[in-house]
Specification:
Elements lengths: L5 H8 L4 H27 L7 H9 L5 H34 L11 H15 L5 H22 L7 H25 L1 H12 L7 H20 L1 H8 L2 H6 L4 H23 L5 H13 L3 H26 L7 H24 L1
């Protein structure tokens, strides 16, 4: 379902009243506060409960106690959740603008499927067993599929429909390959089972260092594209009339989404619905202006991801439910609600 909301977008590109800007700015501050609270909960909650005082002591006055060790172990997990959540939210916002589909997500263009297929190939045929190896193969797979989708979608003549169709076709083919290889190779299935559902439990400082440059570059590029993507959302003719370079904007948007989603998927596996739900919900109270959608999505997507991770630790103590499963359970009903609400609004 492709949506082109030209009248709404034209109204949004006009200068916003000062009162509305103030409300949005206050909302961003509240989002920062909520994110900080969820980050503290991510460090404090687990098989071993920690108090806020213990978390503070572990972060700023390390003395080698058990609580301090727990804080150190959970800190990498929390930081990775912050980075991956922001990357998924930004990539979802970019893809929704690029395809003019407010229900699009990073998996729409086959990026998740490319990363997963590359990791399975590395495990089965190249003998890669370390997470550091998964990261690079997953990122290369995501980048290769992003380039292939861009080529099949028409390259410089790409349109939202062509890109979505190319991504869907490639995703179906790659997931078929993924299942075939995993069924034939029990060892690959055993090593892939946690990565394919999406998890933050294997986070390390090394993983963060490997993906941080890509996430930083993708974030800067995505934020820089907010204004031209606003024009692209209004339709090709209107965008050209406003002086937007459609080919360059679409190519850079594909690159930003691929880098962000590819690095996030490489770090912790494919996590669904975060990049779909948060930008779509944010759009409902910010309007379609990406200059506001992107900052909100970058703050609230980690709230959803870390909150789901904390929930997964609480509901299955002393074990835990992987965060990718929790977001899927939450996201399914929310997605159905969003689709039904859009259909009702169009009647």
């Amino acid at each position: 379902m492709l949506v082109d909301s030209v009248p709404e977008q034209r109204a949004e590109t006009a200068p916003a009243p000062p009162a509305r800007k103030a409300v949005r700015s206050v909302g961003l501050l509240l989002a920062v506060a909520v994110l900080a609270l969820v980050a503290v909960a991510s460090i404090a909650v687990g098989a071993k409960e920690l108090s806020v005082a213990q978390v503070w002591h572990g972060l700023f006055a390390d003395s080698g106690t058990y609580a301090d060790v727990v804080v150190d172990e959970r800190l990498s997990r929390t930081v990775l959740g912050l980075l991956v959540g922001a990357a998924l939210g930004l990539s979802g916002a970019v893809l929704q603008a690029l395809t003019r589909n407010p229900l699009a997500d990073p998996g729409l263009l086959g990026i998740n499927a490319g990363a997963s297929a590359a990791v399975v190939t590395a495990i089965t045929f190249l003998g890669v067993t370390s997470l550091s190896g998964y990261v690079w193969f997953a990122f290369l797979g995501a980048a290769a599929v992003g380039a292939l989708v861009w080529f099949l979608g028409g390259s410089r003549g790409a349109t939202p429909v062509r890109l979505a169709l190319a991504g869907t076709a490639i995703s179906a083919a790659l997931y078929g390959y993924l299942q075939a290889v995993m069924i034939m190779d029990d060892a690959a299935l055993a090593r892939m089972r946690f990565w394919t559902v999406g998890s933050l439990s294997s986070a390390t400082d090394g993983t963060i260092r490997q993906v941080l440059p890509f996430l930083a570059a993708g974030t800067v590029l995505a934020l820089a594209l907010a204004r031209p993507l606003n024009a692209v959302e209004m339709g090709d003719d209107t965008a050209r009339a406003l002086g937007a370079n459609l080919d360059r904007t679409r190519a850079l948007a594909m690159l930003a989404a691929t880098v962000l989603c590819g690095a996030a998927t490489a770090a912790c596996g494919p996590i669904v619905f975060v990049g779909l739900m948060v930008p779509h919900i944010v759009r409902s109270f910010t309007g379609p202006d990406l200059r506001w959608i992107m900052p909100y999505a970058a703050l609230l997507s980690p709230v959803l991801l870390l909150g789901s991770d904390v929930l997964g630790r609480v509901v299955a103590r002393p074990s835990e439910v992987q965060v990718g499963i929790v977001t899927a359970i939450i996201g399914g009903p929310v997605f159905i609600f969003l689709v039904r609400r859009r259909r009702t609004a169009q009647l």
